[in-house]
Write a structure and sequence with these properties.
10 helices; Rhopdopsin 7-helix transmembrane proteins; mainly alpha
Length: 254
């Protein structure tokens, strides 16, 4: 097991060095608070990735997939944040394409976690998986089309909100929410409720960034990037930590 941990840490370190080398041509000014936020969050994502991949060996086998997915989410975010920092420092512009590539991978993975943690303790219909996936894609496609200028920003915002509300319905009142309520597993119920609060309250930060950046009379790139960076830091890392704590609690109770 120690060899596995060493291998994971070495791989993450090499990934960080290689990615950092690609972004090293862009020097970060000490008074660039937006650029510093990109840097701090990328380091937080790297640390979280190492933690989740090491801890997957300490949870029950039925929970390892969920903990590994949590590590994938923060690992993918780390790579994209290194490149987003470079784009910001070199152009002083919002790295919209990189950010949405990140979200198009990581946000569906996060929502699929609702299905995975339910499946770890009971049988769950596959329809839950597909509804969460489709809802997340609708939300992100609408947001990207609006931010990139392919459709009016307000229409993109409406599509984004429709996808988000659909996801909220599924995890609160839909089949996923009902399955969690009937699971009879206290740790799962607590975790499911905490994750729902992140998707409800934590994810509300993203629409605020969209409103301030694209619906209030002009794009304030500083505001947009700081809000989005803060939201990613809270939502991706906290999301994974909650899943890990549930996995540990259920593994110890067996």
């Amino acid at each position: 097991m120690s060899k596995l941990r060493t291998l994971i840490l070495s791989a993450v370190a090499l990934l960080g060095l290689s990615t950092g080398a690609n972004a090293a041509t862009a020097f970060l000014p000490t008074d660039d608070f937006v650029g510093i936020s990109f840097w701090l969050i990328s380091m937080g994502m790297l640390a979280a990735t190492a933690f989740f991949f090491m801890e997957q060996a300490n949870v029950g086998i039925q929970w390892r997939k969920s903990v590994n997915v949590a590590g994938l989410v923060t690992g993918i975010a780390f790579i994209h944040y290194m490149y987003m920092r470079a784009v910001w420092v070199e152009t002083n512009d919002t790295p919209t394409v990189y950010r949405y590539i990140d979200w198009l991978i990581t946000v569906p993975l996060q929502l699929i976690q609702f299905y995975l943690i339910l499946a770890a303790v009971r049988k769950v219909p596959i329809g839950v998986f597909w509804r969460l996936l489709i809802g997340s894609l609708v939300m992100l496609v609408g947001g990207y089309l609006g931010e990139a200028g392919f459709i009016p920003p307000f229409l993109g915002f409406v599509i984004w909100m429709a996808g988000w509300l659909y996801v909220l319905y599924e995890i609160f009142s839909g089949e996923a929410g009902r399955a969690a309520a009937k699971s009879g597993n206290r740790a799962l119920g607590t975790t499911f409720g905490a994750l729902r609060m992140i998707v409800t309250i934590g994810w509300a930060i993203y629409p605020l960034g969209y409103i301030f950046g694209y619906l209030t009379g002009g794009v304030d790139t500083n505001t947009v990037n700081i809000i989005y960076n803060l939201a990613d830091f809270i939502n991706k890392i906290a999301f994974g930590v909650i899943i890990w704590s549930c996995a540990v609690a259920n593994s110890r109770s067996r």
